[in-house]
Structure formats: C-alpha cells, structure tokens
Task: structure prediction
Amino acid sequence: MTGLTNLNAILATLDPVLGESPYVFASLKNDTTVDVTSLDPLFTFKEEEGTTVIVHQDVADKMSLEYLVVFNQITLKVHLSLEAIGLTASIATELTKHQISCNVVAGYYHDHIFVPTAKSQQALEALKELQRYSDIQLKNLY
Result:
C-alpha cells in the first residue's frame, strides 16, 4: 500500500492519537555494557557519539539512564509516504505557535511526535485543530 504524498491530504487526515506511556530519550555510550535489546527500546539510532534510545521512563529509571525530559507519543495514524514533503515543517510550525517542542520520528507507515508530557494534551488539541482546518481547506479546493 502506497502512502499519501499530497501535503493537503495528509494534514486533512492526520488522525493524531495520544499515547499514555511516558517515554524518554537517552544516549548510550559506544563502549556501554548495556544490552540495548534488554531496554526494549521503541527506537534506536546510532550516532557518532553513541546510540540514542527512546524507552519507557520506568525502564530508564530502573537502568539508571540519564534523561532530561519526559515525553508522550502522539502517533499520526495517516499512512504517508516516506517521500512526503512538508509534514514535519507543518507539525513543528503548528506546535511552535503553542510554545510546544517536538521530536519527530518517522516510521515506515506513520510519523510519531514526541512532546513534553506536561503539554501533551495541548499538543494533541493543536494537531486536531490543524487537521480540521486542513480538511476545510482541502474541501474548498474541490
């Protein structure tokens, strides 16, 4: 199944869903003895400085991993193409209007937005409003 590439169509069908689990971003040094798979990470990314992991907060606490902020995950249920242009910029722009930071992770089928837990409900409402506005705009095009 091919994902959407038209930004207007993507924004009009975002379908954001807020997860309840608290997640954190942590970095494991290259010489770590921690078995990454034991952390059951939601996401890993190898960087020059170490391996970034997104894990449940309780796992990070149990393993004494350092982190700075606790996030909630908002999954955009719209199925978009990895070649879609403009979604990350649109999301960041909308959340910036509400003074909400975000970290975007692209999965094969969906994008996932990590927002500070304290502002997660506000972020969800902002994304739903963006979807409503975009849906009206899209209908006016046709």
Q: What stands out?
A: The domain at 7-141 is CATH 3.30.2130.10 (VC0802-like). The first helix runs from residue 7 to 12.
